Every structure is written in C-alpha cells, then in structure tokens.
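Example record used in the benchmark description.
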Amino acid sequence: MERENAWKKYTDEQLEELEALSSEYIDFISDNKTERECAASAIELAEAQGYKPLEKAIAKGHKLKTGDKVWAHTHGKALILLHIGSEPLEAGFNILGAHIDSPRLDLKQNPLYESTDFALLDTHYYGGIKKYQWVTLPLAIHGVIAKKDGSVVKVNVGEDISDPVFCISDLLPHLGKDQMAKKASEFIDGEGLDVLIGSRPLVIDENDEGADAEAKKSPVKAYALQLLNEKYGIDEEDFLSAELEIVPAGRARELGLDRSMVLGYGQDDRVCAYTSLVAQLAIKKPKRAALTILVDKEEIGSVGATGMASLFFENTIAEVMELAGEGGPLKLRRALANSKMLSSDVSAGIDPGYANVFEPKNAAYLGRGLVFNKYTGARGKSGSNDSSAEFVAEVRKVMDDAEIAFQTAELGKVDAGGGGTIAYIPAKYDMDVIDSGVAVLSMHAPWEATSKADIYEARRGYEAFLLNA
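Model output (structure tokens):
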C-alpha cells in the first residue's frame, strides 16, 4: 500500500495555491515564535474573517445562532475558534486541535549575571531537546515582562536585520578532547545553556563614592541592565515576573534547489496549527459546528491552565451551548461524546540518514500527504489514544471523497522510542479522536524541515474534515 508522491498529481492551479499557502505559512512561523504571538496573530486573522470575542457575547447575553463565529482565549496562550453550523450543538462538533508551543529555552526568574567580563542569561530548557544543537546559533529573545504597575512590556530582540542577536558559546576543538569523548546527551548540560548577551562594561569612576557598589563589582551586567532600562523601562527585579523565551533568530526559508520544502523553527506544531487555522477560517456553511483549538504546554505534558488538560475547552463549550439555548450538563456531555476530532500534530518523517530507526512500510514520507497515526505512544502504545477502526474508516472516506493525499504511519520502530499528542485528553469525553499531521525532518531541532506538498494537503484535509465528518 505504498502511497504516491503528492507532487505528481498537481495542476498548475493547485501549484499556485500551494506556493501561496507556503509563502503565507513561512511568514506566520517567522513572525510568531511563541505561543503568545501565535494566539494573538490567530485572533487578528480570525477577526478579519468575522469572528467575534465570546466574552462580549457572554457579557451582553447575546444569543448564538447558525452561522455565528466566535473566539475565546485563556491567558493569551490558548485559543478556541468556533463556527456554529446548522445542526444542533448537541449533535457534536467537528474539531481540529493543535499546539502552538515549541521546544525552546526559557529564562530563569533570576537570570542575569556576569562572569569573566561577559554578561549572561541563565536558562531552563523547555520540552524535549538535544541540548548540543543550541550552541553557537544566532538566537533571539521573545516574550513579555509584567510590571508591578500592571503594565506588560513586549520583548522581541534579534529578528530585525538591525537587531543584535545572542548565542551560547562552545569550546574550540583544539581544547575539546574530553568534551568530544562524551555521549551526545552529556556534551553540554542544562546549566551550561547560558546565553551570551554582552561584554561592554559600564564606565564608572572608581573614586565616585556614590556609585552603586554592585555596578562597580559587575560593570558588564550593569551596562546590560542600563540598556534594558532605557529600551523597556525595566529593572532587574522585573525579571521575576517575566516570560522570556530564547528561540533561533531569523526567518524560515524555502529548502532545496527545487524550493519544495520549508526550513524553519517551531514547525512542531505550528505547521498543523497554521493549516488548522486557515482551514477553520475558510469554511462557509458547516452543518456540524466547526471548532479549532490551539493550545499551549503540549511539549511538557499539556498541563496547566493553558494546556489541553485544563478546563478551558470544556468551559468554553458550556458557555457556547448556554448562549445557543442548549445549556445544561447533560446536553454538554452528549455534545462532547458526539464530537469528532483530528488531533493535529506532526509525525516523524523517514530520514535516509537515520533509516534504521524507521519501519519503511509504516513510516511517514515527506511529500506523500497528510499523515494519520491510528495510535502513538511508546513501549507498547503507552500514553496513546488508539482510534477505533470505524472512525479510521470514516476519516478515510472523507479524505478520499475530497481527493486528499494522505498516508498512515507510526513514530518509528516499535522499540526505537515513541511519543504522544493531546489526543488522549479529549478522548476521555468518549469522542472519536485520531492523530493527524505533517511529516517533519529533524523534529525538535532548532530548525525543522517540512514539505510544501504536505502543508497543502493538511490544509485541504482539515477543511474537508470540518465540513464532511
């Protein structure tokens, strides 16, 4: 059952659509490298398509009806978009779910220090990374700093061509004999991922008795703090209430002589988040209510107020049903149980350099379309949602009827490792859920690769599911 490469079937018109979508996608992941940025940008795009904030409808008691489009978010990091269809909500929703967080480095709450005439920032890595991949890269700082007066300062340094960038230094090979003898997992430890941000000292008159003693002791740190205060109006204490993320600097790019792929940061899982978002915004008159949820914290277990395991999803559905005249706990439970969902997350693309960890018949191939994983998990499907045969058959029909190129896969050989997604969490409501997404090379690396064909098929497949499941 080998699947054909999707590139072979495209018309000139489809190739134009594919390239336009890929260009917009490259812009999106280049401009939005944190979950906050992704959510804010998605809201802006949704409002341009007529989506209204749910909180205003709740405050004014506005009734929701067929055709209404609303959005809701929590803490600026998780987002729900809902387009009400012609069928009662109790009949269930067609749902796309993806995550907008990605592996990165987070600044510690007390990050800034000086050592050997350098100013550095302490970090704590987020999600599953190979730590050695993050050294010597040009890095950017994105995030927010919340101040005690209630104001929130946005930070984005390292993306504009006129901006400085930052890096984590590495040891020269001439002195690296012992380092290079280590296992890859020991090449650099978590506490070694300190970001270099400066080397220029604040010039202080040593005879000035009124000069700050700490500034005299650590003049490079003092100068860095002075620059931060001038640009953002913050002091060192404000780091305590900051969320600052270290990400690779620079735009995503077309990959290959044929420009058939995309190389960029955060494609796990923003490639699925963006295609889900675009599919949601494109639909016109759904029969069943169409819903896309973009969540945070998947890379660390979907925990917290902004992860899929929070009550944000369930509470939002309850609010919508109340405004639609279908309120009540029993109707809510029926609606959730009657829902169908694609848990839209990336799959590991087979890599010729590491083919030994893949089983070719059940591997995802770049360029062969949207990937479906009946199950994920590790060590005997542990931590997996395992979709029913009946639901897989239904999804197959939806994709075939819409002429979507798709493939099925597992995440590598049985004993090679494994992974999971958010699928098992909504499945607890008794709804049908299956994992689907785009194949990725170098997953969780600072730069990941995808196929434009798979991005295009994902966007088409997600729209088909919202309309026809």
